[in-house]
Design goal:
heterodimer, A: alpha/beta, Rossmann fold, six-stranded mixed beta sheet, four-stranded parallel beta sheet, 16 helices, B: 264 residues, alpha/beta, nine-stranded parallel beta sheet, 12 helices, globular
Chain lengths: 393, 264
């Protein structure tokens, strides 16, 4: 197996790159030339880790889930990203990116958001650093994720509705990119996932890599071995999965499990199962797998979960799938809701709907009792209570 | 000979490049508009291939694309439309679209269909120079199809030079650090940028686009370039027109001359 890493042009195998209009070239090029230097600098590392520890509350626990383990006959651990400040893994990335933005002299922050978790995480760090914050969010998502919209406003961010296309994450991303084109000098675009033009996928993966860095240490303490047999994570764009996989990408004995949203069912026309329904193409500046028609028009995805409702996946994941390094499962709305309810009842943890998709895979896999399974519990479910209530209770 | 190159050689000033979206306002209007523009003062037509996620376009053009797609515009249909009017069309045609459209249609198939339909040039804003050199350059040259790349006020001098050399058609000078469809007047800062660019371009044909909307801005742009590209303003006008054949010539005239055209 070839080592999995990004090349100088920002490609993982055939996927990645920067397919951007000239209007974005300088911004993206400046970032490309500076991100590694900044991330690797002592000052960044010190401030980033200090904030992760004292502000975010890291390391997040690696919790041995006795009840799930019993039910599914494996040693199941939950990486508790839901316990982070703001309730999801998203803040690992926004803390990192805002420190990069500051070091590049940017004063205005924009972001896109689907479920609202990244929007909240961005609004939070902007409040912390005293920077102006504008979050683009699909009109449909504004409606179905009302609590997060309120949180962003409370934090002082301006939430702008994306009203084009499907009015969800894809369109919010388009609007954010447009904003960046219109404001190329003072603005930093904090992308919330491992998507977009190079260097975003690599930069976001590096900032989320703290998840797998911790899993390694924690597992070594608990099981006397650093690598699990399986890591399971849901993938919309794929940032929590990228973080959970990062330090295991070239660790062949760990199987990487990507879980995508099948919506109403893969072939119902209401789905976001990109690995099955997608083909190679370009979305948001990156060559990757995406759902599209024969003319390259991007097909609007569907999932009950706003965070997985994205027609593409990050180029790293496209490469992991293409090279068969990762295995993909698709989980329907119904299966996810059921898994969310199950975790709530078995462990007293209400997961985000996105995360529930990852949990639903347990029922689709066969384990042996000694196998170690880590599920990245990417977020908490408070924002989804209305949906759970409607469908489960 | 490539009609676009010929036009650029024969007419070094005051070129009007008009942009419209294929299949907008109605599906067959691509043909109506193209026919209406024959024998007008339009020197180049740029036809937008409507795309679902047009990152480099402003809201006016995006909306026209959404409508065109709803109307049922497809690339194959666009080529059929262009073929149907090929014999009657004397204006150089440029297709503007996004790289993913070409990739999914198939690069060779797309370029062959362009060639057959009498397309003279392409503008693909999200096509990286490196990918162009590696994948498309030879294919375009073999078919005598020109390509134009964009520069913006933020494009470095070194990069302007690269883009100038890579562009076999004209260089597309993006007038402003912002996206199409904004209506404001041309600023002193922009004039400085136009002057700077004119010097860098030397004899290389270049057209100014984005924000050109009327006779005043058209003439201003023509002072510093070989001509100008009008997109959003024309799309907005098309949307209001009740009779394209009657009203388009008047509108074109209003751009080219500063006579006030009475509302009929």
């Amino acid at each position: 197996m070839q080592k999995i890493q990004i090349n100088d042009d920002g490609f993982y195998g055939a996927f990645g790159g920067a397919y951007i209009p000239e209007m974005l070239y300088k911004n993206v090029d400046d970032l490309k030339n500076q991100y590694l230097k900044i991330i690797e600098s002592d000052s960044f590392q010190k401030e980033y880790h200090q904030l992760l520890k004292d502000y975010v509350g890291r390391p997040s626990p690696l919790y041995y889930s006795k009840n799930l383990s019993q039910k599914y006959n494996a040693k199941i651990y939950l990486k508790r990203e839901d316990l982070n400040h703001t309730g999801a893994h998203k803040i690992n990335n926004t803390i990192g990116q805002i420190l990069i933005a500051q070091r590049m002299g940017k004063t205005r922050i924009i972001a896109e958001t689907g479920a609202g978790q990244h929007g909240v995480a961005t609004a939070t760090v902007c409040a912390l650093m005293g920077l102006e914050c504008i979050v683009y969010m699909g009109e449909v998502d504004i409606e179905r994720q009302a609590p997060n919209v309120a949180r962003m406003k409370m934090l002082g961010a301006e939430v702008r509705a994306a009203t084009s296309g499907s009015k969800t994450l894809k369109d919010a991303t388009n609007e954010a990119i447009r904003d960046w084109i219109n404001n190329p000098n003072d603005t930093f675009y904090i992308i919330g996932s491992v998507v977009g033009p190079h260097p975003y996928p690599d930069m976001v993966a590096k900032l989320q890599a703290v998840i797998s860095e911790e899993i390694k240490k924690q597992l070594l303490e608990k099981e006397n071995r650093g690598h699990p047999d399986y890591i399971i994570a849901c993938v919309g764009g794929g940032s929590n999965a990228a973080g959970a996989f990062y330090h295991y990408l070239n660790e062949k004995s760990t199987q990487l499990i990507i879980v995508e949203a099948a919506g109403m069912g893969i072939h119902t026309g209401e789905s976001a199962a990109t690995s099955v329904l997608g083909s190679q193409g370009i979305i948001h500046g990156s060559k990757t797998l995406l759902m599209q028609d024969e003319d390259g028009q991007i097909i609007e995805p569907y999932s009950i979960s706003a965070g997985l409702d994205y027609p593409g996946i990050g180029p790293l994941h496209a490469h992991l799938i293409d090279s068969e390094r990762a295995h993909v499962f698709s989980v329907t709305d119904k299966e996810a809701l059921q898994a969310g309810l199950e975790l709530s009842r078995l462990e007293g943890i209400i997961p985000a709907l996105e995360t529930s998709h990852a949990l639903a895979v347990l029922d689709k896999m066969k384990f042996t009792s000694k196998e170690i399974v880590v599920i990245n519990l990417s977020g908490r479910g408070d924002k989804d209570l209305a949906t759970y209530m409607k469908h489960c209770l | 000979m490539n009609r676009l190159i010929k036009t650029l050689e024969q007419k070094p000033s005051n070129l009007l490049n008009l942009f419209f979206t294929a299949g907008f306002p109605y599906l067959t209007d691509t043909i109506t508009i193209l026919k209406t523009l024959q024998n007008s003062e339009v020197d180049i037509v740029e036809i937008g291939m409507p795309y679902s996620d047009p990152l480099a376009d402003g809201t006016t053009i995006q909306e026209s694309s959404t409508i065109a797609l709803k109307n049922g515009m497809k690339l194959q249909l666009l080529f059929e439309q262009l073929n149907s009017i090929k014999e009657d069309n004397n204006i150089p045609i440029i297709l503007m679209g996004y790289y993913n459209q070409l990739l999914q249609y198939g690069l060779d198939r797309f370029l062959d269909d362009c060639k057959n339909a009498g397309v003279d040039g392409l503008i693909i804003p999200d096509l990286p120079l490196s990918e162009y050199e590696a994948v498309l350059k030879d294919k375009l040259e073999a078919r005598d199809i020109a390509i134009s790349f964009l520069i913006t006020p933020n494009t470095s001098t070194e990069r302007v030079d690269l883009i100038k050399r890579a562009s076999t058609g004209f260089v597309y000078v993006v007038a402003d650090n912002s996206i199409t469809g904004k209506s404001k007047d041309i600023s002193d800062e922009q004039i400085q940028y136009f002057k700077r660019t004119k010097k860098l371009m030397d004899t290389k044909p270049h057209l100014i686009g984005f924000g050109i909307k009327d006779n005043t801005s058209f003439r201003q742009a023509c002072d510093y370039a070989n001509g100008a590209i009008i997109g959003s303003a024309f799309i907005k006008a098309l949307k209001e027109m009740k009779d394209l054949e009657q009203e388009i010539p008047k509108w074109v005239k209003s751009i080219k001359t500063n006579e006030v055209i009475p509302n009929s």
